[in-house]
């Protein structure tokens, strides 16, 4: 896997200010200085950080915690490079405040179910999906302390009022979605029994194709991976949601595309341009590429099916060629091509959380990836890293704003499984 390229993409995706139209400043970045004494530090030894926008009205006792994504590091060298990364994915000294959009938005129109909750953007700077717990480290880092960071931030939020919350929603995308998966049940246990707790993992249903190299040993992750899994198999296998999700007791929602760009890019390994040009125009796409995609989707849907059928589990599995859909406004609410069964992601997640509705939507009809709308305000530069990114580029490498493409390749009539 081309870690460097993918990291750059994720840095762009995560650091870029999607909500340019937002008038207000983003919520302040708050660094937890007291966490340093507990050894809960970013890769470079700096304090962990979060951003908080306070709830109001009916949302005043409700908390939504969104764990930031941004891939991970699996070697000392990668983790060292991350410490200097301008995105802040390895150091709070380099972080900037990010806008709250999508599931984090404070705008009732843009985020009708959670806009007035206390919303927290938990910033990612440990490279371990919030699992690291290595005692020893070099004086100048990297420090491997992601698991400690998770609980140091939770301690702070409990004191800020989360200990009396009526509702808590632990969410995250990509690496943050993995973290939400690993911590879901233990997180519920730090809250009062009366608190309603649910979790959402966005763009983190990584299917088990390759054995992960080094991650667990480097970060000392075993303590913070679910015991229900690590007691049954080797810790490295417990990085994979399929080995963890079936044992999670807390209600869990899986939001993912069966054509997640990040996974497809790492799983299929095509020359960079072929993926993109095919997406732009499937008509000219080589059969080998299409077959590889379809093959990936088949495996993906099989793993989802293998999880078994639990009535508390929410599913929203669409076919957009995209990665991370909860944080980005156009995907969260607005893009008709992201919808399933006439529901936006925002509606599906909202009804599942608030109304305990059974939402299990799987797009079994679009056998090819869909070009879902890219919001014109997403200021992603098109570049040569786009194979793993969540936006499209046109043939001139310009950002593509193709609104509603005709899906002429979708021969079967749209059909959803909704229960
Ligand atoms: C990170 O930056 C520091 C200070 O600029 C430099 O001394 C160090 O070599 C850099 N480390 C890496 C891995 O690039
Ligand atoms: C939680 O509620 C209790 C009882 O009302 C109160 O004493 C405590 O200060 C509250 N905690 C926070 C962090 O507000
Ligand atoms: C897609 O590619 C085919 C074959 O190269 C071409 O005939 C067609 O005009 C292209 N469609 C678009 C919209 O560019
Ligand atoms: C789950 O079970 C229900 C009822 O037994 C069924 O209708 C539904 O299709 C199942 N969902 C999935 C995703 O298999
Ligand atoms: C989809 O939802 C829209 C807006 O709520 C509604 O106007 C439309 O009739 C719905 N379409 C279907 C097929 O249910
Ligand atoms: C992408 O790479 C090609 C070939 O290496 C180069 O010609 C082109 O300028 C690059 N595009 C961008 C946007 O960097
Ligand atoms: C697309 O990119 C080309 C070359 O980079 C540029 O000349 C052109 O103006 C761009 N078109 C649009 C619509 O932005």
TrEMBL record:
Function text: Hydrolyzes acetyl esters in homogalacturonan regions of pectin. In type I primary cell wall, galacturonic acid residues of pectin can be acetylated at the O-2 and O-3 positions. Decreasing the degree of acetylation of pectin gels in vitro alters their physical properties.
Enzyme nomenclature, EC number: 3.1.1.-
GO biological process, one term: cell wall organization
Protein name per its UniProtKB record: Pectin acetylesterase
Family from the record: Belongs to the pectinacetylesterase family.
GO molecular function term, any single one: pectin acetylesterase activity
GO CC terms: plant-type cell wall
Domain of life: Eukaryota
Annotated source species: Daucus carota subsp. sativus
UniProt cross-references to Pfam families, sorted A to Z: PAE
Keyword terms, alphabetized: Cell wall, Cell wall biogenesis/degradation, Hydrolase, Secreted, Signal
